[in-house]
Amino acid sequence: MTAMMQAVYFLEPGKLEMREVHVPTPGPGEVVIKVESATTCGTDLKAYRRGHKLFKPPMPFGHEYAGYISAVGAGVTRFKEGDAVAGTNAAPCNECFYCRRGRQQLCVLLEGRFNFGSYAEYHRITDCIVAQNLHHKPDNVPFTEASFIEPLACAVLCAINADIQLGDTVAIIGVGAQGLMQIQLAKALGATRVIAIGRSPGRLERAKQVGADVIYSSNDGDPVEFVRSLTEGRGADVVIEAAGSIDTWQQAVMMARNGATVMQFSGLPGGTQVSFDATKLHYGEITMKGTFHLTPRTAEMAMQMLATGTVNVKPILDGVIPLTQVEEGLLRMQRSEVIKLAVVPSM
Ligand SMILES: [Zn+2]
Ligand SMILES: [Zn+2]
Question: pTM of the predicted model, to two decimals?
Answer without folding.
Answer: 0.97
